[in-house]
Design brief:
This protein is of the alpha/beta class. Helix content is 34%, strand content 11%. It has 8 helices and 6 strands. It has helices at residues 7-13, 20-34, 48-52, 89-101, 114-118, 143-157, 167-171, 204-214; strands at residues 39-40, 60-64, 121-125, 130-131, 162-166, 183-187. The strands form 2 sheets. The chain has a 4-stranded parallel sheet. The protein has a two-stranded antiparallel ribbon with strand order 1-4. The two termini are 30 Å apart.
Amino acid sequence: MAIDLEPSWLNVLHEEFDKDYMHQLKQELKKEKESGHTVYPKNSDIFNAFRHTPLTNVKVVILGQDPYHGANQAMGLSFAVHRGIPVPRSLMNIYKELKTDIPGFEIPNHGDLTKWADQGVLLLNATLTVRASEAGSHQRFGWEKFTDTVIRKISEEKEGVVFLLWGRFAQAKADLIDQRKHHILKAAHPSPFSADNGFFGCHHFSTTNEILRKEGKQEIDWQV
């Protein structure tokens, strides 16, 4: 696993890479590959979210749980997939909510959310790798210690960030965020199993832009 962090992230996270849990995590990933398992995303994409969204640029955080575990889906951005890969159902539900929430939004024929990331939307999964075809398979490796630290650092270093916490897993991370400094929007997960229970109609995207306007920040162009 190559550590490829953008400098503003490395500045606040460099100590993590010397900790025991990170050395253990690297060993676990090495064993996975030595055992012949396919791991997603590919090495060069593991820290994609950090590459596209420097800490200095973070305005919004959308927290996912696990990378997609299907062939060539995961690209290191939560909820996103590479162009040419069918749009997953959770992402399609996100697009459907955008269609009703943002005037003029057109549902795209791809799932590449890089445009969001480049505007300051950190698309962060709590676990950054997964074994092919086995959802949640790397959750015991230690990634959440790292990504919990990422959330804490955003909370400490920034002000006025909008955190979109969808589903119980993401909402459990609210304790890591200083709610006196930041904005937390909660809704059901966009999964087909829960989207009808409060994700559809949450208006998180227009609300996020309203908050950013009040903070004197550039709104997000959600069209991809």
